[in-house]
Each structure stands twice: as structure tokens, then as C-alpha cells.
Design goal:
mainly alpha
Length: about 200
């Protein structure tokens, strides 16, 4: 078994584990955090209070698995652009866990870096994929990037703000930005294990 465990499969396992554990933790934390409303509150609000340890630890794990995967992928996918973008996205995600929402100004610096570089990584990863997946990842990266720009008017709003721009509360739009990034990484992780080492 371990003789066939190459860089692709290791990167795949890391990416899938990182994403899946994070999604499960978010679902649990949203149910645990008192008075939490996903459409209104930032996801990062789970990094404070009762769910702080759970969320921040999971986010650091997500960032580490992403960063380690970028190093492994570099071994067989020679795109320097993708490597740099994906590594920065992973390291910035670690920063989101290390500097939670109440750690200003650092949290406000690392969060947009993580989201923007993840979206750009998606669009630069198309050669890693085969068939329709290549187009889906570019599409998801573009949606995340455009949604991130759309999110700019929400910056600086208080945690409890219920202001709406173009029909969305800040929590909903933030999830569009984040979950489109998670989706393309899931596609990448599932595809890597099905391709031979080159």
C-alpha cells in the first residue's frame, strides 16, 4: 500500500482531510455558539467565545494541510505561479486561526489575503485538472474573487450589523466567497489521487 503512496496521493489526502474537518467543525461550532446566525455573523466570529478553540484549531489545521499540499504539488506540477499563490493562501489561513476576529488589525490583514490568493490559485490550477473540472475550478475561483470584491462594502461593519447590500447580509456573502474556494480545493483533492505520478 505505502509503496504506491506518492506525492499526489499524499497531497490529495491532506487537502481532503483539511477541508472536510473544517466543514464539520463549522457546522458544530455554529450550533454551539450562542445566538449565532449564519446569514448575519462572520464565520470568523466562531473564533471567539465558546467556540474559539474549536474554530481556531481547525482553521490552523486547514492552513497547514493546504501549505503542505502546495509543497507536494510543486514536486510534479511545475507552475511557480500556482505554487506561490496556493502556499500564500495556506499560510494566510494559518494566520486566520492564529489571529482570530478579536485580534486587530492582524485578522483584518490575513483574512483577505487567504481568500484572494485562494481564488487566484483556483484560476491558475486549471492544468492540474482533466476535463470539465478544469473549467469548474476557474469558474469557482472567479466567483470567489468577484464575490470578494462585492464584499468590500461590508468591511468595517460591526459583528451584529444587519445592513444589506444587493440583498445579502454579510454572513451569506462571506460564505459564498469561502465555500466556492472550498469547493475547488475539494475537486483538486479528489482528482489528484486518481492520476499517476509523473
Amino acid at each position: 500500500m505505502f509503496k504506491t503512496w506518492n506525492n499526489r496521493k499524499t497531497a490529495s489526502a491532506l487537502l481532503l482531510f483539511g477541508i472536510i474537518q473544517w466543514i464539520i467543525v463549522i457546522i458544530l461550532a455554529e450550533g454551539i455558539q450562542p445566538n449565532y446566525i449564519s446569514s448575519i455573523h462572520y464565520i470568523s466570529s466562531l473564533g471567539t467565545g465558546k467556540t474559539a478553540f474549536l474554530y481556531n484549531t481547525s482553521t490552523i489545521i486547514l492552513g497547514l494541510t493546504t501549505s503542505l499540499s502546495s509543497l507536494l504539488i510543486r514536486g510534479f506540477y511545475k507552475s511557480r505561479v500556482f505554487f506561490v499563490l496556493f502556499l500564500i493562501a495556506g499560510l494566510a489561513t494559518v494566520g486566520v486561526g492564529v489571529f482570530p476576529e478579536n485580534s486587530r488589525p492582524m485578522h483584518g490583514i490575513v483574512t483577505p489575503i487567504a481568500l484572494i490568493f485562494a481564488a487566484l490559485s483556483a484560476m491558475s490550477s486549471y492544468r492540474l485538472h482533466g476535463g470539465p473540472a478544469a473549467y469548474f475550478t476557474v469558474f469557482l475561483g472567479a466567483v470567489s474573487l468577484v464575490s470578494g470584491l462585492w464584499f468590500i462594502p461590508y468591511l468595517g461593519l460591526s459583528v451584529e450589523s444587519r445592513e444589506m447590500f444587493l440583498g445579502f447580509y454579510k454572513g451569506t456573502l462571506e460564505r459564498i466567497v469561502i465555500y466556492t474556494n472550498l469547493l475547488w480545493v475539494l475537486i483538486l483533492g479528489s482528482q489528484l489521487s486518481n492520476k499517476p505520478e509523473t
